[in-house]
Amino acid sequence: DKLLKLAPDTANLLEGDVVIQVASINLKPGDLIVVKPGERIPVDCLIQDGESEFDESTITGEPIPVLRSPGDSVSAGSLNQTVSVTLVVEKVAAESFVSRMAHLVEEAQNALFKLAAALARNDLYQIDPPVYCLFDDSVEFHLDFVALVVDVVQIKF
């Protein structure tokens, strides 16, 4: 839940010369939004106009703001710090980096619950090790948590 709260529920949709506040879940790829200093990015976007510094520490852990220019991507939950920017929506809210991270955390918590239950029953063979793919298709990061824990448990006993 805390991860999902990083991205705001509303966005400033740019329609012609008019800015309209809409629900972030209604944004679709190709929409233009305006993000002012002090506002968080509602969905994953590309910068179309403006150059600003973004605090991405809640996502990356990096404490130093990052300068982003037209053509650069910014992730949902990043905090715009210096000037208003116009962004092009890349992904719907449910497919944003923050949403995917929240989903993976939930799956990992469920896997831990299943592992704990299997350990309590001494029935480790009933668990299918989940393999998670994180980030974009171009970056593969696999976490085979259950298999790792099973290996550790077998080594200890």
Total number of strands: 11
Largest sheet entry: 6 strands, antiparallel
Radius of gyration from CA coordinates: 20 Å
Secondary-structure content class: alpha+beta
Please state roughly what percent of the residues sit in beta strands, choosing from under 5%, 5-15%, 15-25%, 25-35%, 35-45% or over 45%.
25-35%
Low-confidence runs: 130-147, 152-157
Order of helices and strands: EEEEEHEEEEHEEH
CA distance, first residue to last residue: 36 Å
Could you estimate the helical fraction of the residues in percent? 25-40%
**Per the principal axes of the C-alpha atoms, what is the gross shape?**
elongated
Given the structure, what is the number of helices? 3
Task: Record the strand order, biggest sheet.
Answer: 2-1-3-9-4-7
**Mean pLDDT across every amino acid position:** 75
